[in-house]
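Renewal narrative, Specific Aim 1. Our central claim is that a sequence can be written position by position from structural information alone. The example that follows is taken directly from our test logs and has not been curated for this report. It begins with the structure tokens describing the chain, in the order in which they were read.
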């Protein structure tokens, strides 16, 4: 079937019309084309905002500013630690600025005596 035959929200059933009225007919058509027959979960506003907050915290994390971030976002320091755990691991594994890694070291220096 051709989605372009849908030219008015009044061609839709009531429940689908309500959705099309909220997001617009063109967006509704995109949903139908991409997700027809699928279960689609829409997050609660709190969850969306929490994801945004957590990403901001990860971006601002510098390796040791747990307390400052906890105060800024009105969170327990333990919560901040949980949020930044993966980034902390990455920071700890990355070389310090100017530090040479084993892979950077010339092989001739490693095996010469």
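The sequence written for that structure reads:
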């Amino acid at each position: 079937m051709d989605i372009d035959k849908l030219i008015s929200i009044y061609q839709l059933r009531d429940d689908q019309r309500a959705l099309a009225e909220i997001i617009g007919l063109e967006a509704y058509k995109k949903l139908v084309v991409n997700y027809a027959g699928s279960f689609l979960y829409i997050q609660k506003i709190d969850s969306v905002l929490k994801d945004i907050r957590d990403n901001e915290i990860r971006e601002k994390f510098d390796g040791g500013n747990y307390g400052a971030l906890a105060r800024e976002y009105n969170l327990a320091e333990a919560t901040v630690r949980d949020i930044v755990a993966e980034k902390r691991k990455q920071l700890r594994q990355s070389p310090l600025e100017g530090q040479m890694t084993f892979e950077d070291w010339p092989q001739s220096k490693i095996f010469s005596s």
